[in-house]
Structures are given as C-alpha cells and as structure tokens.
Write the structure tokens for this entry.
Amino acid sequence: MTTSNESTSSSMDGLKWFTVALLLVGAVVGNYFAGEADAHFLARLIGVIFLVIAAFGVAAVTTKGKTFISFAKEAQIEVRKVVWPTRQEATQTTFIVLAVSAIAALILWGLDGILVRLVAFITGVSL
C-alpha cells in the first residue's frame, strides 16, 4: 500500500529531475554564450562547475539518487574486500595467458592450412 509520503516523494522527484535538467542545460548554454561574449575562462569554469555540482546535489536527494549513493557506498566496501594479486602472480598469469594464446593461434593456423588444402583438393583449384 502506498503511503502519502511515498507519493509526495515520487511527485517531487519529477520536479527535482526537471531542476537537474535545467541546471545542466544552464551550464551548457551559459558556457556557450559566455564563450561567444569572450568572458574570462576562469569565471566560465567556476560557473559550470557550480551548476554541475548543484545538479548532482539535487539529483542526490531524489529516490534514485539515494539508491545510487547507497549502491556506491556498498560497492566501495566490496572493493576493499578484494584480494589483489602480487606482482609475481600477475606476471605469471600474464605469461600463462600469452602461452595459451600462442598455442591456440598455432593450432588455428594449422587447421586453416589443412582446410585450405582440403578444399583446394576437393574443388580442383590449385594453390
């Protein structure tokens, strides 16, 4: 059952996403027109950064934004749990992959040569 708080939040989310879009469009359009007016580069840069940060701030308070922030925090926790290989393990694994790739390439090259000769023999075309 939907509570009034959830429906209010979802209706406000539309307004928040519209605000995000306006802020981002304002950053792009403002940068374009300021560039034509030969405005100072640093002022344009600060203006664009401010509008983009404001857009991210508004997006962060939406339902999807909060979900994304929660997901990002959980992903960061999981990355900390990863056991990264040592330099020696990475080097050994790289050499194994290179060796297996070279062997597979030689096998495919040999099969290709055999099949080309077989097809040439069956069709009577000389190489």
Observations:
- The chain has four helices and no strands.
- The helical segments are 4-36, 41-60, 63-81, 87-123.
- The first helix runs from residue 4 to 36.
- The CA atoms of residues 6 and 54 lie 24 Å apart.
